[in-house]
Structure formats: structure tokens, C-alpha cells
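Hi there, hope your week has been kind to you so far. Thanks so much in advance, here it is.
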Amino acid sequence: MADKPKAVVLLSGGLDSTTVLAIARHEGYELYALSFRYGQRHTVELDAAARVAQAFGVVRHVTTDIDLRVFGGSALTDDALAVPHHDNADDLGSDIPVTYVPARNTIFLSFALAFAETIGSSDVFIGVNALDYSGYPDCRPEYIEAYERMANLATKAGVEGTQRLKIHTPLIALTKAETIKRGRDLGVDYAMTHSCYDPVDGRACGTCDSCLLRIRGFAELGLTDPSMTAVG
């Protein structure tokens, strides 16, 4: 029996990245998860990432430290900026919100590229979405396509032809409800995930952008978001 191909999956511990991990497993990949402690105020998500990685039996789960607080510029990494809260998802604007972390996906994908090269993988999975999301520029298809082109010029494995990196974005054209349905079809228990930007005592706030989009996704399926009752 041939060995399974290896995949590096960016795993925040949230709804999207957990769904992507389930998809990668379903597609037959051997799972390697990569999480980041980047100075985010919602570090409780890393506890969720550890739970998810264990539940999915990943071969190796790496959590690495990058302190993006030294730059600030985001409500997630700068105490001087408040996380916005709204009454419902319809109140979310079309401008790029203050929860955008400058160059975060570029930084994360660069680490994933290094991880993939060292384990002999040509596949990186990331849970970006360009449809039902908060307006982040590094979640768009054109960004992912450009990064993939660059990545294949950037490594020894790429130059020598032993790696042809593919960045998989299985959620990029899905609504949040479609993402949840896909995950549930694959047996994901969303109670173990955490997506909140501004948790209180480990519990989701229910009113930040991330919570509202998530709540709406479950509601569109006639379901209640388990993170509204679960800790973490």
C-alpha cells in the first residue's frame, strides 16, 4: 500500500480551519498541523487547535511563536485598538475591519512552505474564504494564486523539481453555512472549535465579526452554534 501524501494544514482552532483539516483527511492526506501564537488576544483558540489536532490524529502539530504585537496595527494584536462588536451580521460593513492583521496570511503561509519542504510535502491547506468573510485582502483567490506562483520559485525543493507546491483553499467559494454543512457531513464536532476574537473567560462573546458570521451560518442551517454554550 502506497504511503499517503503529506499535507500541512494551517490550524487556528476555528470553524474554518477545522473544516479544512477534515477535508484534507477525507481526501487521503497524512495530516501535519501548524498553529501560531502570534500575540493574538484570543490565545484561547490555541487550546481549541490542540483539541482539534488530537481529535483528528494529526501526525505532528507544531505551534510556533511570532510576536506580531511588535508592529500592532490590528485589534487582535494591539491593546490600543478595540475589537468591534455588533448586534447582528447584517451590521458588518464592507471596509477592511480593524481585526485585519497586516500580512498575517503571508507570514503564516511562509512558515507552512518551510514546514512542507522539510517533510517532503507539496500540499498546504488553508481555510481562507472570499465569499462569506470579513473583507480581508489576503483571503482572495488572486492573492492565493500569486503566493503559490511565488512559493514555487522560493525553495530548494521547487528549484530542483522535487516539490510542486499546491495551496488548497477548499472553502474559498463557500458561504459559512455551506462550510458548516460540509464539516458536519465529515463528522466535525464544532463544539471543540473556537472562533471568537474577543472571548470572555474562555467563552465566545457572540457579537464580534467572527462570532456573528459563525452564528449566522449555523442559523441558516436551522442550528445553534455550539460555541455559544461551550467553553473555548
